[in-house]
Amino acid sequence: MIRDHNPEVIDISVYRDEFYAVSVNLYPYNPGHLLIFPLRHIEDIRDYSPRENRRLEELLRYFLDLSDQSYSPQGYNIGYNMGTPAGGSIAHLHLHLIPRYHRELGIADLIAGKRVLVEDPRETARKLKEKIAQTPFSSAIS
Which fold has domain 13-129? Predict the structure, then answer.
């Protein structure tokens, strides 16, 4: 999605509108780990326009509901990694939405590189696209 439609990069995107794209994380911490990123190049959260902020809030609520239906997590980590020292791996702002469960690795363990992958990201994308087709996101943004 970000790689100029390179056929060697697998497409695990699940949603796109005029402001944002949503994709499954290729290296997920948990099944359902999503990235919400603006189509406009932004590196700092303070650069969002008011319209982008409103749409992000709407998308976040929609994908939280979708994740609840699909994965039944007990909690979430939601956040940004702005800049390399903070763990940012690409210079384009993106929001992580990570379903969390009791008795699993902590976020510090996950950030340190430990993984317990129980679902292929392509399968996650397929499942979420089916859910989106059943419950489409709709919002009138001004």
Answer: HIT family, subunit A (3.30.428)
Residues of the chain below pLDDT 70 = 1-7, 88, 105-117, 138-142
The overall pTM is greater than 0.85: no
- Encode pLDDT of 45-54 as tens digits: 999 999 999 9
Pick the catalytic residue from 33, 92, 94, 96.
94
10, 14, 68, 130, 133 from 3: Cα distances, Å: 10, 16, 30, 24, 25
* Residue 94 is among the residues annotated as catalytic for this protein: yes
Decide if 99 contacts 30 (C-beta within 8 A): yes
